[in-house]
């Protein structure tokens, strides 16, 4: 095992090439197809309004808002085929698809219970 040494910037190098702190940082490959957002898909998603609706059996179900009424009620088509009317304060916002399976959930634009649970399910569900 190499002996740690000091580099010119003051950081300790554990592998002879980079400071020891670098092992905790990950680089982003900007040429990866996963990091490049398809503009057409992003625009189509932005044109629709998605929300998380509380569900007795699944916790939350994603749905698309079809109509907003003046009293704050939303008419929402759920992914499970149901159509519900619910007050907008009882829903939670859905993150754009580019945040699916994200490792650092603090990067979510809509950091709420439903989005965290969905992200964990997407990352770790095996059945």
Automatic annotation (TrEMBL):
Domain Myosin N-terminal SH3-like: 46-96
Domain of life of the native organism: Eukaryota
GO cellular component: myosin complex
SUPFAM superfamilies per the UniProt record, alphabetical: P-loop containing nucleoside triphosphate hydrolases
Segments for region (Disordered): 1-20
Entry-linked InterPro entries: Kinesin_motor_dom_sf, Myosin_head_motor_dom-like, Myosin_S1_N, P-loop_NTPase, SH3_Myosin
The keyword Kinase belongs to this UniProt entry's keyword annotation: no
Ranges where the Myosin motor domain occurs: 100-127
Listed Pfam families: Myosin_N
Keywords: Actin-binding, ATP-binding, Coiled coil, Motor protein, Myosin, Nucleotide-binding
GO MF entry, a single one: actin filament binding
Gene3D superfamilies named among the record's database cross-references: Kinesin motor domain, Myosin S1 fragment, N-terminal
Family of this protein: Belongs to the TRAFAC class myosin-kinesin ATPase superfamily. Myosin family.
Protein name stated in the entry: Myosin N-terminal SH3-like domain-containing protein
Source organism of the structure: Rotaria magnacalcarata
Classification of source organism: Eukaryota, Metazoa, Spiralia, Gnathifera, Rotifera
């Amino acid at each position: 095992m190499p002996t740690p040494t000091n580099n010119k910037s003051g950081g300790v190098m554990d592998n002879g090439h980079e400071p020891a702190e670098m092992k905790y940082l990950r680089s982003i490959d900007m040429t990866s197809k996963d990091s490049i957002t398809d503009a057409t898909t992003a625009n189509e998603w932005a044109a629709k309004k998605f929300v998380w609706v509380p569900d007795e059996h699944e916790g939350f179900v994603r749905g698309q808002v079809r109509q907003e009424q003046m009293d704050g009620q939303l008419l929402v088509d759920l992914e499970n085929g149901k159509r519900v009317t619910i007050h907008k304060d009882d829903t939670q916002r859905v993150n754009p698809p580019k945040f699916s399976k994200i490792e650092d959930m603090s990067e979510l634009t809509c950091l709420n219970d439903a989005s965290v649970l969905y992200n964990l399910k997407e990352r770790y569900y095996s059945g």
